[in-house]
Amino acid sequence: MRDTRESRLLLVLLVAVAFALITVDIRGGQNSPVDGARQAAATVFGPVENGVSSAVNPVGDAVAAVRDSGDRHSRLATLERENAALKAKLGSGARNRSRLAQLDGMLKLAGEGQYGIKGAQVIAIGAAQGFSWTVTIDVGAHDGIQRDMTVLNGDGLVGRVTTVGPDSATVLLANDPDFTVGTRMEGSDELGFASGQGDRPLRVQLLNGKADVKKGDRLVTFGSQHDKPFVPGVPVGVVSRVDPSGGDLTRTVYVTPYVGFTKLDVVGVVVEAPKKDPRDTVLPKKAKPTPTPTVTVTVTPSANAPAGDQQQEQ
Questions:
Q1: What is the pTM of this model?
Q2: One digit per residue, pLDDT tens: the chain, 314 residues?
Q3: Are 202 and 196 in contact (CB under 8 A)?
Q4: What is the DSSP string of the chain?
């Protein structure tokens, strides 16, 4: 439409009519004369509005859901990371507590035996240097470690050092078939030689074929000349089986070692031997036997029992 005098006059007229209708509608309320027209318009345009609304709302809901979903995934990922960090922290704490307990036990044993030790951690296990039962520890020549030093932990004898590098060393475990250590029996002082048998008990050949030995007896290291490779008094294990004596010059017993060779972590290398043999003082205290309760039952004849029964009891 071109901007002419007639068009401007028509526009002013339409605006005036619109204001007049609005004024009449507001003043009329529910009885407004244009209420019918408004309802008719609602009838015509309502379905279109609803359709547009129903078409638009799911899109809005979907967009909001995607946005909220991203937030939920982000929160979930954050929680998962926090949980993982917490579990790692708890695991690390438990491991540290275990190591502290092992270290405490080892220092206690070393103190009782007056062994000067260098603490170490097992960092590898495997068939090093051709041996089948060995571990690698994280101390070496730079830490004063030498070949043929005794290795122990809080439970007892672990093995001996066989090879030494600048910062690590290889330990031959006491249960290796190539391992042999001199032993002494607690109390009786019977001497023997213990050899490893892998995952089976140690095999000990007692020098006295008539030695009085029984299940439950305990053994410690006898010690070597100049304390290499073994210092004296380190707990070895407990006798679990005794072969019958057959009149041989030696007697065979089987010993369950104190040390669990499949779960080594913190160990100590004896870098200074005790000034005197600790004998049996390093052995753990024996558990006191639990007394078996004795129950005594006394039968008292009843006063109402027949006389014949009482005579029979007499």
A1: 0.64
A2: 555 666 666 666 666 656 555 555 544 545 555 455 544 444 444 444 444 444 444 444 444 444 444 555 566 676 667 666 655 655 567 778 888 889 999 999 999 999 999 999 999 987 645 557 999 999 999 999 999 999 999 999 999 999 999 999 999 999 999 999 999 999 999 999 999 999 999 999 999 988 999 999 999 999 999 999 999 999 999 999 999 876 678 899 999 999 999 999 999 999 999 999 999 999 998 777 666 666 666 666 665 655 555 555 44
A3: yes
A4: ----HHHHHHHHHHHHHHHHHHHHHHHHGGG-TTHHHHHHHHHHHHHHHHHHHHHHHHHHHHHHHHHHHHHHHHHHHHHHHHHHHHHHHHHHHHHHHHHHHHHHHHHHHHHHHT-EEEEEEEEEES-GGG-SSEEEES--GGGT--TT-EEE-SSSEEEEEEEE-SS-EEEEETTSTT-EEEEEETTT--EEEEEEETTEEEEEEES-TT----TT-EEEE---GGG-S--TT-EEEEEEEEPPP-S-SSEEEEEEESS-TTS--EEEEEEE--SS--TTTTSPPPPPPPPPP---------TTS-HHHHHHH-
CB 215 within 8 A of CB 194: no
Dihedrals phi, psi of 142, to nearest 5 degrees? -65, -20
- Which tokens sit at 230? 């073994």
Burial 276-303 (b: 16+ CB within 10 A, else e): ebbebebbeeeeeeeeeeeeeeeeeeee
How remote is the C-alpha of 196 from its chain's centroid?
29
Structural tokens at position 99: 């190591």
Contacts of 220 (CB under 8 A, 6+ apart): 183, 184, 186, 232, 233, 234, 235, 236, 279, 280, 282, 283
Reference 159, options 147, 178, 148, 174; nearest CA is 174
Tokens of 244: 């019958």
